[in-house]
Request: fold
Amino acid sequence: MIASVQEHAERTFGEPLSYTATDGSVATGIPGIFRDEHAAQDLGLEVDVDSIQPTVDVRRSDLPARPRRGDLVVLDSRPTTPYRVERHESDGEGIFKLFLHEDV
Reply:
């Protein structure tokens, strides 16, 4: 059931990406659901600070290796904006949410 929901979401909202693991293994054309998520952060100031934490949801079975900090993600729609994986979370059902930062 979860897999069919993920597949429907990928067909509707997904976009292809390339993934290069720190060990050098590569996968291309991986469907992923990319988001530029905004989050308010309380830094103890009088106002919250807004930050952007881009994420992408991918299936574990599509990745060339288990995600690690420093892996490279390039969206086909943004080939000049590479991202590095900062951290990842598993949903326990085979989907990883990768937390990214621009690789400038």
Summary: The chain has a mean pLDDT of 85. Residues 2-40+49-102 form a domain with the Thrombin, subunit H fold (CATH 2.40.10).
